[in-house]
Write the structure tokens for this entry.
Amino acid sequence: MLVAGIWKSTASCFCLWNSRHLASLSRNLVRFKTLPGVGKPVKRISSPGLCDLASQTKSSTSNLCLDMEGSDAALLSLSKEELVARIRELERSCAPKPADVRKKKKKERPFNFDKHPKRQIALLVAYAGGNYKGLAASSESDKDESIETQVFIALRTARLIEGNRDSCYYSRCGRTDSGVSAYRQVLSFRVRCKQTQGIGVFPPVAAAGGSTEAGQPVENRPVDSAASAAEAGAGQATTSSEQSMPMDCAEEADEIDYVYLMNKLLPPEIRILSWSPVASTFNARFGCRSRTYRYLFPRGTMDTDKIADAAQRLVGGYDYRNFCCFSMCVQSWTREIFRAEVKPANSLDCRVMDNELQQRQIMCLEIQGSGFLYHQIRCIMTILLYVGYGFEEPSIVSKLLDIDNVPARPAYSIASGHPLIFFDASYDESELEWTCSAEAWRELHHALLTTWSRQALQLSYTEGLFDCINKNVPANSPEHVAENASLLSGFHSALLPTLFVGKRKPGLLDLKKVMPFEKRRCFQLAKEVKKREEREAEDTEGTSCVA
């Protein structure tokens, strides 16, 4: 009955509205001779015509009401259960589709790398490693918290490589530990490219037809003499650059913008500074001539002259077993250090300061060498901190380099890895030619300014707090020992249990107290080296006798 009443009221309202609407429309047509926008004349409608139109309208509405009454009768004949089922059916047909129903994604067409050429390139990478567990990945999983994992995810997303890391001829300049950052780390890959000619370019497999030339770089194939002469002249005209600034190279104008593409996919802590085409035989690790590290530390009340003196004693080729942590993979602890300097971290600190500002000045140890052992820089920094705070003399470095008197590393903690930075890596000038597009450089500059402004505001706030507390200095102000401990704790240092506990005199390290396992390993390695030398001497004597 309720549904029938609703249908009747709706039908009567519709009939009344329809008759009134048609009557008003007829009166408007009488006033105008033509319809708007049509241009055809319309006959004037007389009053008898209006009567005919009203009668037609009345008849049509009466027919609609009869239909409604018939439908009412049909609905009245239904039972309660049938009416409920009918209402639910109408609700289901009129209900809107839920928002979470999504269209099925189309299957992605597999990317055919065989249709594209490849080339060997080197990337200049900078990263802040505070939130990562080092550069090298411990597994192939994408959940591994390392720099390499993020780089390979970006490479696969951009369709620059396929497969695992072994298939792209990957190499890195050097490993960095957990928390260590980098300015100019060098990584090398074989990636997809656009060009079919150039340094380190491999033609597409589909174009090569599966021949032996498919696995050979273009640079190793016979080419026309005129083309080879033109390429040789172009190679002599270009020079390598070690600055990451916008460059427009005509040879690489149509190449993929690797810097811009990768920076769009990488997290903000990892940035690609530039890229360089390299030869197919290039290896980022074995081709590196020297590596430079920087270790940042607060100046505090340390004697920087003594630190510089102790650091200078490290320069040369020595056995640095007492300045590293034990590793089963190492067969020789001999390395060569070319340079070791202690200086302010940046040019902004080179100004006249009062005592308090000098204590908060950030210094750095910049050390360059052919290669470094496991945790070597952090162990060196521990000894330099001992010297700087007066717990040891600079001569302690010479004593630790004397392997005959100190055959194994004494028991001391190593400095934190957070202030350590992989600063630079040097190669032959003919191997690398760094380039970066203007658009990619602008994006890099914008990201760096954003990061700087955020951190500069926080630093300015902290400096303002120093000014506030210095206005009311109590009579019993803290000693320098507490200030030094606070400075080191800000650098996540593990040296606090051994430093600044009581009043200590020079001679903090006990050279006789060494690691037992390392001592045993050192003696074993020394015997193996001696036997190898004796065996080589016997072989040389045997060859000379035969001659």
